[in-house]
Amino acid sequence: MMLQERLNRAKPYVGVIMIQFGFAGQGILAKTALNQGMNHFTFSVFRNGIAAIVFAPFAIFHERKVRPSMTLSIFFKIFMMGLLEPVIDQNLYYAGMKYTTATFAIALSNIVPALIFIMAWISGLEKVKLTSRHSQGKILGTIVTVGGAMVMTLIKGPPIELPWTKQASFHQSSSTTTTLHPHDSVKGAVMIAAGCICWACFTILQAITLKEYPAELSLTALICGMGSLQGTILTFAVERGNLAIWSVHWDTKFITALYSGVICSGVAYYVSGVIMQERGPVFVTAFNPLGMVLVAILSSFILSEQLDLGSVIGAIVIVTGLYLVIWGKSKDQTSSKIVDNKDEEAAATSDLEMATKDGLSVRGAKLPSDASSV
Predict the structure, then answer these.
(1) Domain extents for the chain?
(2) pLDDT digits (tens, 9 = 90+) for 320-334
(3) What is the largest CA-CA distance in the chain?
(4) Which among 15, 85, 160, 244 is most buried, taking Cβ atoms within 10 Å?
(5) What predicted TM-score, i.e. pTM, was given to this entire model?
(6) Transmembrane segments in this chain: where (predicted)?
């Protein structure tokens, strides 16, 4: 019984960490595909279309008895979610990466946990009491986590030699770096920042919609399907006459779309929705900077990229910030359980008092008849 409880407690943490592993793999694949000329408009369409096709049968079969009826309000929310993340955020993020660098894009995207924390606080999805220690821990942990991500990307320091990266160190040191025009850098930064705001709005809207439409598989399929449809319309409007971008070949670009659709759109939306209903949107997105640590580690193995001291220090700071957020959220869970137990005890006491009063009133009503019979 104790083991089962521990496993249930560990499930949300395992889920969000696995999501970050998925995003880390997608980051490496997307970097390679963009270098090979992948069009970000069609990439978004294929990615979300694949996710909708894969998850729709599971949603139809598994949630046929629990799926709520569609209303105009829910449909509008799904329409907005499909527009915010699958269309606007994904296209702005990859377009901005072309104007800046992948490192800068990843660094700037780590403002998302802070944005979601503020939005969840304002919308009432996250309980925050400034005088409470666990609320202070959540606030401080969010700031520390974002700060660690910035340290990891903006501060380099001396390289750390690893056995599997020594062979690539000569090639990396002799490679030339491309210089970017300041105007393009500003344009790219604005695109990525706007995409991050859309991502944060999407997450908050997803948490709100799940309260009215608690069918995670169906919601995932509908969001991805809506996003793919909207993305198709946008792509035809922007890339008029350029039919070559729709050609599909079994190459890195198609593998990236397939992987991103199933893992980063389908599985990530679904798992995030399940965990979000239990722990809230702040808990899910607080682990986003962990993806940077995983990308750095995986890149050192797969791409033979060198780690530097700044990356290691930033990773330690990120883990420290995550610990503070997790500590604050665990206190929230404990507090909510105590409140629920008190409510149950109060309800049971009230029922007992009502039953006692009813019993006394019944006995009192019988006394006159008993007395007359005597």
Answers:
(1) 12-373
(2) 887 887 787 776 655
(3) 113
(4) 85
(5) 0.77
(6) 12-29, 41-61, 68-84, 104-125, 137-155, 189-210, 217-237, 257-275, 282-303, 309-327
